[in-house]
Amino acid sequence: MAHGRVGYRVRRLRWPDEGKSVSEIIERYRSEGFLVVEGLLSPEEVNSARDEITAIIEGTLPDSEHIDVQVEPMVLSGEASTSSRELSVRKLMGYVPHSAVLTDLAEEHPRVREILRELLGADVKLL
């Protein structure tokens, strides 16, 4: 299954991005529709989030049965397969009251908050 635009090269940003302001980074998001910001999270933060997501998908996180794990439709229908359950997941929903690790990264991480404030305003809340 192909992802992304054919022939489209993803431009990655480093945090901080060679002297670019957050406003300039947001402008790239608004013009391209997405951002890839390398260095936004530390390797430890990425590993912690990855471990938490794995626990949610495997159902080993307490209360994980209350988190909606949406699987790719082509995997559900049998038209496609993946080498692991994690790779079949499209998105996680409803994790906010059940995963302090992911909620803290999204709501409290200073660099993430800075970008979200610029995009959405000062009063950003996860639902």
Task: Summarize the structure in short.
The protein has 127 residues and is mostly helical. The protein has a domain at 46-108.
User: What integer value in Å does the Rg equal?
Assistant: 17 Å
- Work out the number of β strands: 4
Low-pLDDT residue spans: 1-7
Mean pLDDT, nearest integer? 82
Largest sheet data: 2 strands, parallel
Q: Which bin fits the share of residues in helices?
A: 40-55%
Number of helices: 6
Shape: globular
Strand pairing plus helix content: what structural class? mainly alpha
Beta strand %: 5-15%
In spatial order, strands of the major sheet run 1-2
- Give the distance, in angstroms, between the N- and C-terminal Cα atoms: 31 Å
What's the SSE pattern? EHEHEHHEHH
Description:
With 127 residues, this protein is mostly helical. It has a domain at 46-108. 43% of the residues lie in helices and 10% in strands. The chain is built from 6 helices and 4 strands. The chain has helices spanning 22-32, 43-58, 73-77, 85-88, 100-107, 110-120; strands spanning 13-14, 37-38, 68-71, 89-93. The strands form 2 sheets. It has a two-stranded parallel sheet with strand order 1-2. Helix 1 links the parallel strand 1 and strand 2. Helix 1 crosses helix 6 (110-120). The protein is globular and about 45 Å long. The two termini are 31 Å apart. The model is unreliable at 1-7 (pLDDT under 50).
